[in-house]
Amino acid sequence: MRYHSPSRGFKTKDWRALWRSNIENFDKLKEKSTSNSAFVAIDAEGWHVDKDRLDVSEIGIAVLPPLVSEDAKGPDTDFELDSLFSRHSIQGYSFRIRERERRERDRESFRFGDVQHVEPEEMETRLVGTLESISRQFGNLILVGFDLSFEFGLIASKLTQITPFFSSWIDLQEITTEVSGTQSPSMTDTLLALGLPLDGVSVRRKSSQHSAGNDAVRELAVLLKLLTLPGGNTSLQIHQEPSKSRRHGNAKNPGLHMYWNDHRPRLKELYPFVATIRIEGASVARKFQNLTHLRRIFKSYEPTAVGTSKNSGYGWICLASAEVLARFVMDVQGQELGGVVWNVTTDYDPEQSPSVAMTPYQLREARRAEQHAQKENKRLQRRSKGRQWDEDDEDSLGLDLDLEGIASETAPI
Asked: Are residues 217 and 103 in the same domain?
Protein backbone atom coordinates (compact mmCIF):
# COMPACT_ATOMS: atom_id res chain seq x y z
CA MET A 1 0.00 0.00 0.00
CA ARG A 2 1.42 3.38 -1.03
CA TYR A 3 0.65 5.12 2.31
CA HIS A 4 3.13 2.85 4.11
CA SER A 5 5.99 4.41 2.19
CA PRO A 6 8.33 6.65 4.24
CA SER A 7 7.86 9.32 1.54
CA ARG A 8 4.08 9.56 2.01
CA GLY A 9 4.41 13.30 2.81
CA PHE A 10 2.67 13.63 6.21
CA LYS A 11 3.26 12.64 9.84
CA THR A 12 0.99 10.33 11.83
CA LYS A 13 2.42 10.51 15.37
CA ASP A 14 -0.49 12.64 16.67
CA TRP A 15 -3.15 10.29 15.30
CA ARG A 16 -1.38 6.93 15.20
CA ALA A 17 -4.35 4.98 16.62
CA LEU A 18 -6.51 5.88 13.61
CA TRP A 19 -3.63 5.48 11.18
CA ARG A 20 -3.07 1.88 12.23
CA SER A 21 -6.75 0.95 11.84
CA ASN A 22 -6.87 0.90 8.05
CA ILE A 23 -9.48 -1.28 6.31
CA GLU A 24 -6.98 -2.48 3.77
CA ASN A 25 -8.82 -4.91 1.50
CA PHE A 26 -12.18 -5.72 -0.03
CA ASP A 27 -13.01 -8.61 2.30
CA LYS A 28 -12.54 -6.40 5.37
CA LEU A 29 -14.70 -3.73 3.76
CA LYS A 30 -17.50 -6.28 3.26
CA GLU A 31 -17.15 -7.32 6.90
CA LYS A 32 -17.23 -3.72 8.17
CA SER A 33 -20.32 -2.93 6.09
CA THR A 34 -22.35 -5.17 8.41
CA SER A 35 -20.84 -3.89 11.67
CA ASN A 36 -23.45 -1.26 12.50
CA SER A 37 -20.95 1.51 11.68
CA ALA A 38 -21.69 4.71 9.79
CA PHE A 39 -19.40 5.62 6.86
CA VAL A 40 -18.29 9.27 6.77
CA ALA A 41 -16.79 10.42 3.46
CA ILE A 42 -14.52 13.46 3.57
CA ASP A 43 -13.29 15.34 0.52
CA ALA A 44 -11.25 18.56 0.34
CA GLU A 45 -10.66 21.04 -2.49
CA GLY A 46 -7.26 22.67 -2.70
CA TRP A 47 -6.36 26.36 -2.73
CA HIS A 48 -3.06 27.61 -4.14
CA VAL A 49 -1.64 30.11 -1.66
CA ASP A 50 1.25 30.53 -4.09
CA LYS A 51 2.97 28.33 -6.65
CA ASP A 52 4.67 26.26 -3.94
CA ARG A 53 1.99 26.07 -1.22
CA LEU A 54 -1.41 24.36 -1.35
CA ASP A 55 -4.04 24.98 1.33
CA VAL A 56 -7.76 24.13 1.44
CA SER A 57 -10.76 26.10 0.15
CA GLU A 58 -13.60 23.68 0.93
CA ILE A 59 -14.23 20.49 2.88
CA GLY A 60 -17.21 18.27 2.14
CA ILE A 61 -18.68 15.59 4.39
CA ALA A 62 -21.26 12.93 3.51
CA VAL A 63 -22.63 10.46 6.06
CA LEU A 64 -23.99 7.02 5.19
CA PRO A 65 -25.96 5.55 8.14
CA PRO A 66 -25.28 1.91 9.14
CA LEU A 67 -26.26 -0.48 6.38
CA VAL A 68 -27.56 -3.31 8.57
CA SER A 69 -30.99 -1.69 8.59
CA GLU A 70 -31.06 -1.55 4.79
CA ASP A 71 -31.63 -5.30 4.23
CA ALA A 72 -35.41 -4.98 4.21
CA LYS A 73 -35.22 -2.43 1.40
CA GLY A 74 -33.59 -4.85 -1.04
CA PRO A 75 -30.62 -4.08 -3.30
CA ASP A 76 -30.08 -0.69 -4.89
CA THR A 77 -31.23 -0.50 -8.51
CA ASP A 78 -31.01 3.27 -9.09
CA PHE A 79 -27.52 4.70 -8.52
CA GLU A 80 -28.28 8.30 -9.49
CA LEU A 81 -26.81 10.44 -6.71
CA ASP A 82 -30.11 12.06 -5.74
CA SER A 83 -31.80 8.64 -5.51
CA LEU A 84 -29.03 7.18 -3.34
CA PHE A 85 -28.99 10.27 -1.15
CA SER A 86 -32.71 9.93 -0.46
CA ARG A 87 -32.90 6.13 -0.22
CA HIS A 88 -30.05 5.80 2.28
CA SER A 89 -30.86 8.97 4.26
CA ILE A 90 -27.37 10.31 3.52
CA GLN A 91 -26.42 13.59 5.20
CA GLY A 92 -24.40 16.18 3.28
CA TYR A 93 -22.26 19.09 4.48
CA SER A 94 -20.14 21.70 2.72
CA PHE A 95 -17.73 24.03 4.57
CA ARG A 96 -16.16 26.79 2.46
CA ILE A 97 -13.43 29.09 3.69
CA ARG A 98 -14.17 32.78 3.23
CA GLU A 99 -12.02 34.71 0.77
CA ARG A 100 -10.94 31.46 -0.88
CA GLU A 101 -13.97 31.16 -3.10
CA ARG A 102 -13.92 31.23 -6.84
CA ARG A 103 -16.67 32.92 -8.79
CA GLU A 104 -19.89 30.96 -8.38
CA ARG A 105 -20.30 30.49 -12.13
CA ASP A 106 -16.98 28.63 -12.13
CA ARG A 107 -17.94 26.38 -9.23
CA GLU A 108 -20.10 23.30 -9.20
CA SER A 109 -23.03 24.04 -6.88
CA PHE A 110 -23.53 21.90 -3.77
CA ARG A 111 -26.63 19.78 -4.31
CA PHE A 112 -27.15 18.09 -0.96
CA GLY A 113 -27.55 20.80 1.67
CA ASP A 114 -26.58 24.34 2.61
CA VAL A 115 -23.06 25.70 2.25
CA GLN A 116 -21.52 26.89 5.53
CA HIS A 117 -18.94 29.69 5.25
CA VAL A 118 -16.16 29.69 7.83
CA GLU A 119 -12.96 31.54 8.62
CA PRO A 120 -9.74 29.52 8.09
CA GLU A 121 -9.03 29.29 11.83
CA GLU A 122 -12.60 28.06 12.50
CA MET A 123 -12.56 25.06 10.18
CA GLU A 124 -11.29 22.46 12.68
CA THR A 125 -13.71 23.61 15.40
CA ARG A 126 -16.64 23.49 12.99
CA LEU A 127 -15.73 20.00 11.81
CA VAL A 128 -15.36 18.76 15.39
CA GLY A 129 -18.82 20.07 16.23
CA THR A 130 -20.33 18.40 13.19
CA LEU A 131 -18.64 15.06 13.88
CA GLU A 132 -19.74 15.18 17.53
CA SER A 133 -23.33 15.44 16.34
CA ILE A 134 -22.87 12.61 13.82
CA SER A 135 -21.20 10.43 16.45
CA ARG A 136 -24.12 10.95 18.87
CA GLN A 137 -26.47 9.77 16.13
CA PHE A 138 -24.62 6.70 14.91
CA GLY A 139 -21.88 5.78 17.37
CA ASN A 140 -19.02 4.13 15.50
CA LEU A 141 -17.74 6.10 12.48
CA ILE A 142 -15.50 4.95 9.61
CA LEU A 143 -13.58 7.55 7.60
CA VAL A 144 -13.96 7.14 3.82
CA GLY A 145 -12.20 8.83 0.92
CA PHE A 146 -10.97 8.36 -2.61
CA ASP A 147 -7.23 8.97 -2.84
CA LEU A 148 -6.86 10.44 0.64
CA SER A 149 -3.34 11.83 0.18
CA PHE A 150 -4.41 15.48 0.28
CA GLU A 151 -6.93 14.91 3.07
CA PHE A 152 -4.37 13.07 5.21
CA GLY A 153 -1.96 15.96 4.76
CA LEU A 154 -4.64 18.34 6.06
CA ILE A 155 -5.45 16.06 9.00
CA ALA A 156 -1.80 15.80 9.96
CA SER A 157 -1.17 19.55 9.77
CA LYS A 158 -4.48 21.26 10.64
CA LEU A 159 -7.26 18.83 11.62
CA THR A 160 -5.87 16.30 14.10
CA GLN A 161 -8.77 16.95 16.51
CA ILE A 162 -11.21 15.20 14.17
CA THR A 163 -9.35 11.87 14.30
CA PRO A 164 -10.74 10.55 17.66
CA PHE A 165 -14.22 10.35 16.13
CA PHE A 166 -13.16 7.60 13.71
CA SER A 167 -12.48 3.96 14.58
CA SER A 168 -10.95 3.11 11.20
CA TRP A 169 -10.47 4.42 7.68
CA ILE A 170 -10.63 3.22 4.09
CA ASP A 171 -9.32 4.60 0.80
CA LEU A 172 -11.69 3.47 -1.95
CA GLN A 173 -9.03 3.99 -4.61
CA GLU A 174 -7.00 1.22 -2.97
CA ILE A 175 -10.02 -1.10 -2.92
CA THR A 176 -10.76 -0.30 -6.56
CA THR A 177 -7.16 -1.15 -7.43
CA GLU A 178 -7.60 -4.52 -5.69
CA VAL A 179 -10.85 -5.53 -7.43
CA SER A 180 -9.79 -4.29 -10.88
CA GLY A 181 -6.05 -4.87 -11.04
CA THR A 182 -5.70 -1.27 -12.30
CA GLN A 183 -3.11 0.79 -10.43
CA SER A 184 -4.47 4.01 -8.86
CA PRO A 185 -7.54 4.52 -11.10
CA SER A 186 -9.04 8.01 -11.23
CA MET A 187 -12.45 8.85 -9.82
CA THR A 188 -13.77 9.37 -13.36
CA ASP A 189 -12.52 5.98 -14.56
CA THR A 190 -13.96 4.32 -11.46
CA LEU A 191 -17.38 5.93 -11.88
CA LEU A 192 -17.47 4.88 -15.52
CA ALA A 193 -16.49 1.30 -14.71
CA LEU A 194 -19.14 1.06 -12.00
CA GLY A 195 -21.83 2.57 -14.23
CA LEU A 196 -22.31 5.56 -11.94
CA PRO A 197 -23.30 9.06 -13.14
CA LEU A 198 -20.50 11.43 -14.08
CA ASP A 199 -22.33 14.73 -13.53
CA GLY A 200 -19.79 17.43 -12.74
CA VAL A 201 -16.73 15.16 -12.47
CA SER A 202 -14.83 15.27 -15.73
CA VAL A 203 -14.52 17.47 -18.80
CA ARG A 204 -14.89 20.75 -16.94
CA ARG A 205 -13.24 24.05 -17.74
CA LYS A 206 -9.76 24.38 -16.32
CA SER A 207 -10.91 27.32 -14.21
CA SER A 208 -13.83 25.42 -12.70
CA GLN A 209 -13.84 23.72 -9.32
CA HIS A 210 -15.70 20.71 -8.02
CA SER A 211 -17.92 20.83 -4.97
CA ALA A 212 -16.20 18.89 -2.19
CA GLY A 213 -19.63 18.14 -0.71
CA ASN A 214 -20.85 16.57 -3.95
CA ASP A 215 -17.62 14.60 -4.29
CA ALA A 216 -18.09 13.19 -0.79
CA VAL A 217 -21.53 11.91 -1.85
CA ARG A 218 -19.98 10.42 -4.99
CA GLU A 219 -17.49 8.57 -2.82
CA LEU A 220 -20.34 6.98 -0.90
CA ALA A 221 -21.94 6.00 -4.23
CA VAL A 222 -18.66 4.27 -5.17
CA LEU A 223 -18.66 2.53 -1.77
CA LEU A 224 -22.23 1.27 -2.20
CA LYS A 225 -21.56 0.02 -5.73
CA LEU A 226 -18.32 -1.70 -4.71
CA LEU A 227 -20.23 -3.58 -2.02
CA THR A 228 -22.37 -5.18 -4.75
CA LEU A 229 -19.30 -6.78 -6.40
CA PRO A 230 -18.24 -10.38 -5.72
CA GLY A 231 -14.61 -9.35 -5.10
CA GLY A 232 -11.42 -10.64 -6.66
CA ASN A 233 -9.11 -8.77 -9.02
CA THR A 234 -11.25 -9.40 -12.12
CA SER A 235 -14.66 -8.32 -10.81
CA LEU A 236 -14.30 -4.75 -12.15
CA GLN A 237 -12.99 -3.82 -15.59
CA ILE A 238 -11.53 -0.32 -15.77
CA HIS A 239 -10.62 1.38 -19.04
CA GLN A 240 -8.42 4.30 -18.09
CA GLU A 241 -8.84 7.65 -19.79
CA PRO A 242 -6.08 8.85 -22.13
CA SER A 243 -3.53 11.35 -20.91
CA LYS A 244 -4.68 14.85 -20.10
CA SER A 245 -3.34 16.28 -23.35
CA ARG A 246 -5.61 13.94 -25.33
CA ARG A 247 -8.69 13.88 -23.07
CA HIS A 248 -10.85 16.03 -25.31
CA GLY A 249 -9.89 14.06 -28.42
CA ASN A 250 -11.78 11.76 -30.71
CA ALA A 251 -10.18 8.31 -30.77
CA LYS A 252 -11.40 7.56 -34.29
CA ASN A 253 -10.14 10.90 -35.61
CA PRO A 254 -7.43 12.39 -33.39
CA GLY A 255 -7.66 15.85 -34.98
CA LEU A 256 -11.28 16.31 -33.94
CA HIS A 257 -12.49 17.40 -30.53
CA MET A 258 -15.34 15.48 -28.97
CA TYR A 259 -16.38 17.87 -26.16
CA TRP A 260 -17.24 21.55 -26.59
CA ASN A 261 -18.04 23.93 -23.73
CA ASP A 262 -20.00 27.15 -24.22
CA HIS A 263 -20.62 27.02 -27.96
CA ARG A 264 -21.63 24.84 -30.88
CA PRO A 265 -18.97 22.48 -32.27
CA ARG A 266 -17.21 24.03 -35.24
CA LEU A 267 -16.31 24.22 -38.13
CA LYS A 268 -19.27 23.21 -40.33
CA GLU A 269 -16.98 21.31 -42.68
CA LEU A 270 -15.91 19.12 -39.76
CA TYR A 271 -19.33 18.87 -38.10
CA PRO A 272 -22.03 19.28 -40.77
CA PHE A 273 -24.62 16.94 -39.24
CA VAL A 274 -25.65 18.72 -36.06
CA ALA A 275 -28.83 18.43 -34.00
CA THR A 276 -29.76 21.16 -31.52
CA ILE A 277 -31.20 19.75 -28.29
CA ARG A 278 -33.27 21.59 -25.68
CA ILE A 279 -35.05 20.75 -22.44
CA GLU A 280 -38.36 22.42 -21.67
CA GLY A 281 -37.89 24.88 -18.80
CA ALA A 282 -34.28 23.90 -18.13
CA SER A 283 -30.74 24.42 -19.40
CA VAL A 284 -28.99 21.45 -21.00
CA ALA A 285 -25.64 22.80 -19.78
CA ARG A 286 -26.80 22.99 -16.17
CA LYS A 287 -28.69 19.69 -16.22
CA PHE A 288 -25.75 17.84 -17.74
CA GLN A 289 -22.64 19.61 -16.46
CA ASN A 290 -20.54 16.65 -17.56
CA LEU A 291 -20.40 16.25 -21.34
CA THR A 292 -19.31 12.63 -21.12
CA HIS A 293 -22.60 11.81 -19.39
CA LEU A 294 -24.55 13.69 -22.07
CA ARG A 295 -22.79 11.76 -24.81
CA ARG A 296 -23.49 8.44 -23.10
CA ILE A 297 -27.26 9.11 -23.15
CA PHE A 298 -27.13 9.10 -26.95
CA LYS A 299 -24.31 6.56 -27.36
CA SER A 300 -26.38 4.28 -29.63
CA TYR A 301 -26.18 7.02 -32.30
CA GLU A 302 -22.37 7.19 -31.95
CA PRO A 303 -22.04 11.00 -31.68
CA THR A 304 -18.85 12.43 -33.15
CA ALA A 305 -19.02 15.40 -30.74
CA VAL A 306 -21.27 17.01 -28.13
CA GLY A 307 -21.46 20.55 -26.83
CA THR A 308 -23.49 22.83 -24.57
CA SER A 309 -23.89 26.54 -23.93
CA LYS A 310 -24.68 28.03 -20.52
CA ASN A 311 -25.81 31.29 -22.13
CA SER A 312 -28.42 29.81 -24.47
CA GLY A 313 -29.16 26.67 -22.49
CA TYR A 314 -28.93 24.62 -25.70
CA GLY A 315 -26.90 21.53 -26.44
CA TRP A 316 -25.61 20.04 -29.68
CA ILE A 317 -25.15 16.48 -30.84
CA CYS A 318 -22.97 15.89 -33.91
CA LEU A 319 -23.60 12.77 -35.96
CA ALA A 320 -21.62 10.90 -38.59
CA SER A 321 -23.99 11.29 -41.57
CA ALA A 322 -27.20 12.91 -42.79
CA GLU A 323 -28.99 9.57 -42.45
CA VAL A 324 -28.02 9.16 -38.79
CA LEU A 325 -28.96 12.80 -38.13
CA ALA A 326 -32.44 12.28 -39.63
CA ARG A 327 -32.94 9.13 -37.56
CA PHE A 328 -31.74 10.90 -34.41
CA VAL A 329 -34.22 13.77 -34.87
CA MET A 330 -37.09 11.38 -35.57
CA ASP A 331 -36.27 9.04 -32.67
CA VAL A 332 -35.43 11.55 -29.93
CA GLN A 333 -37.84 14.45 -30.54
CA GLY A 334 -40.40 14.46 -27.74
CA GLN A 335 -38.97 11.34 -26.12
CA GLU A 336 -37.75 10.87 -22.55
CA LEU A 337 -34.12 9.82 -22.23
CA GLY A 338 -31.81 10.32 -19.26
CA GLY A 339 -34.73 11.48 -17.12
CA VAL A 340 -35.78 14.44 -19.32
CA VAL A 341 -37.95 15.04 -22.39
CA TRP A 342 -35.97 16.32 -25.38
CA ASN A 343 -36.84 18.91 -28.01
CA VAL A 344 -34.66 18.26 -31.08
CA THR A 345 -34.19 20.36 -34.22
CA THR A 346 -31.59 20.66 -36.95
CA ASP A 347 -30.61 23.35 -39.44
CA TYR A 348 -28.93 20.87 -41.76
CA ASP A 349 -29.70 21.72 -45.40
CA PRO A 350 -28.49 19.17 -47.96
CA GLU A 351 -28.48 21.92 -50.61
CA GLN A 352 -26.23 24.22 -48.61
CA SER A 353 -24.30 21.96 -46.23
CA PRO A 354 -21.48 19.51 -46.99
CA SER A 355 -22.66 16.00 -47.88
CA VAL A 356 -19.83 14.38 -45.94
CA ALA A 357 -17.84 15.41 -42.89
CA MET A 358 -14.21 16.28 -43.55
CA THR A 359 -11.29 15.36 -41.36
CA PRO A 360 -9.02 18.22 -40.22
CA TYR A 361 -6.38 17.01 -42.68
CA GLN A 362 -8.87 16.99 -45.57
CA LEU A 363 -10.05 20.48 -44.65
CA ARG A 364 -6.49 21.80 -44.53
CA GLU A 365 -5.79 20.26 -47.93
CA ALA A 366 -9.01 21.67 -49.39
CA ARG A 367 -8.16 25.13 -48.12
CA ARG A 368 -4.64 24.81 -49.44
CA ALA A 369 -6.00 23.87 -52.88
CA GLU A 370 -8.54 26.73 -52.81
CA GLN A 371 -5.88 29.26 -51.91
CA HIS A 372 -3.55 27.90 -54.56
CA ALA A 373 -6.32 28.25 -57.15
CA GLN A 374 -6.95 31.85 -56.06
CA LYS A 375 -3.27 32.59 -56.36
CA GLU A 376 -3.06 31.11 -59.86
CA ASN A 377 -6.19 32.95 -60.96
CA LYS A 378 -4.76 36.24 -59.70
CA ARG A 379 -1.48 35.52 -61.46
CA LEU A 380 -3.30 34.92 -64.76
CA GLN A 381 -5.27 38.13 -64.37
CA ARG A 382 -2.08 40.12 -63.85
CA ARG A 383 -0.40 38.41 -66.78
CA SER A 384 -3.34 39.16 -69.12
CA LYS A 385 -2.97 42.83 -68.25
CA GLY A 386 0.76 42.77 -68.94
CA ARG A 387 1.70 43.04 -65.27
CA GLN A 388 4.32 41.01 -63.50
CA TRP A 389 3.43 39.00 -60.39
CA ASP A 390 5.26 40.41 -57.36
CA GLU A 391 5.35 40.02 -53.59
CA ASP A 392 2.78 42.80 -53.09
CA ASP A 393 0.27 40.74 -55.06
CA GLU A 394 1.02 37.73 -52.85
CA ASP A 395 0.46 39.79 -49.71
CA SER A 396 -2.81 41.27 -51.04
CA LEU A 397 -4.34 37.81 -51.19
CA GLY A 398 -3.69 37.08 -47.55
CA LEU A 399 -2.68 33.57 -48.53
CA ASP A 400 -0.36 32.81 -45.66
CA LEU A 401 -1.55 29.29 -44.92
CA ASP A 402 -1.08 28.37 -41.31
CA LEU A 403 -1.32 24.61 -41.17
CA GLU A 404 -2.08 24.85 -37.46
CA GLY A 405 -4.86 27.38 -38.03
CA ILE A 406 -7.59 24.83 -38.44
CA ALA A 407 -6.51 23.06 -35.30
CA SER A 408 -6.73 26.30 -33.34
CA GLU A 409 -10.15 27.08 -34.78
CA THR A 410 -11.47 23.73 -33.61
CA ALA A 411 -9.99 23.81 -30.11
CA PRO A 412 -12.76 23.73 -27.50
CA ILE A 413 -13.05 26.68 -25.16
From this structure: yes
